[in-house]
Amino acid sequence: MKMFVKKGIAVLVSFSLFVGMLFVPTKRDTVSASDEKLVIVLDPGHGGKDGGTQNTHDGLTYVEKNINLSIARYCMAELQKYSNVEVYITRGDDYTANLEDRVKYAADRGANVFVSLHCNSNKKSSINGAEVYYPNQSLYPTIGTVGQGLSASIIGQITKLGIGNGGIHTRNSEDGEKYYTGEPSDYYSVIRGAKKHGFVGIIVEHGYLSNASDCAHYFQTEAQLRNFGVADAIGIAQYYGLAKTVYNGVDYSMVYDPYYYLSENPDLAAAFGADTERGLWHFVNFGMKEGRVACENFDPNYYKKNNPDLESAYGDDMGAYYNHFMNYGYTEGRKGCEDYKYIYRGVDYSAVFDPFYYLQRNPDLAAYYGSNRMASLEHFVIFGMKEGRQGCAGFNVFAYRDNNADVCAAYGDAIEGYYLHFINYGQYESRIASY
Questions:
Q1: Which residues of the chain register pLDDT less than 50?
Q2: Is residue 1 in some structural domain?
Q3: HSE toward the beta carbon, residue 145, CA cutoff 13 A
Q4: How many CB atoms lie within 10 A of CB 60?
Q5: Are 226 and 266 contained in the same domain?
Q6: Residues 40 and 157 occupy one common structural domain
Q7: What is the pLDDT of residues 34-93, one digit of tens each?
Q8: Other CB atoms closer than 10 Å to residue 281's CB: what's the count?
Q9: Strands of the 38-44 sheet, one edge to the other
Q10: Residue 272: which of 290, 254, 259 has the closest Cα?
Q11: Widest pairwise Cα distance in the chain
């Protein structure tokens, strides 16, 4: 079981994803707390007989299908460096594949997200810049919301390369087509098809092959195409909270969050930028020895100070404290920092979950899990909330339902929603959560 530590936006995203679970007809939701891996399908647009757009500038011809495939390969290679992710590609070579088959390929692999990679073109050669298209709010609004956030994350990374920002957009059908709900259909086939299968589909337009400047600065060399692929991957990874946490076969995710490590250590950010792979290398080879804090939930100095038996054993060998917590301390119930947060798949459940209370109140779980906090948190998220189990002294889901009529009207018998509402809103609104 892995713990995902995401950036702040992910908490709100996870809440909206839960709402989507009430409506989206798929076994594998856009992001579900019970999923072990995020499944990403990359789609290099066009191929084979369909070359896509094509333009020539200064004697060089730029063919979209080839550019899309190169970007997709680089993106796939970069994404495969992250933990808890499966990456597929709809075409690995130059052949024709129709749009319906591409989406079906993604659906058959249990996709959470489908990213179609393209280049743009316009009769006006002066138009330039990158754009991303995402689902509208029809049929399953959550898919549109997630698509919007993902698109913003990707365009943010692409434009760091210097290319113009054409923004993120939805596009409705222009022939009056509607979903079965009577709402306007999405214009693009792959976005529409992905939504009907219950997962997010977006289209990334990396720039204009009709624009000489875009071509010269961003599409001319393999290095430039690799930059696009890596930028796409970073945008996806940061939105979903993926992390490069495995080094030489050891998973450091319990004590290391790459985004936290780089953002909280300006010297490293200056040296490595957003390169989380080099950040992990630094953490393992230097940061642990230096006792640097690398995530919200583990402070080696706190761990040393508050565990005299370990200090007696390890002294000033700071790296040993990280390893002890990963291998023994967490399951022994030792706290990694003063304000320890119980985070699973990017959501902080601390407001509704205390493992000691949960195990003490549920002897069936204590008999099975012992003092394993990680396993008890996973049980609570996947099963306990759906069953209405009380996870801490300060939150009773039935009291929350009975004392908040507006929340009850929104969620009815969807018990899990009450926990997530309290995490995201109720605790800050001082709502009554106990009898």
A1: 1-35
A2: no
A3: 17
A4: 12
A5: no
A6: yes
A7: 335 899 999 999 999 999 999 999 999 999 999 999 999 999 999 988 878 999 999 999
A8: 15
A9: 85-89, 38-44, 113-120, 200-208, 130-133, 165-169
A10: 259
A11: 76
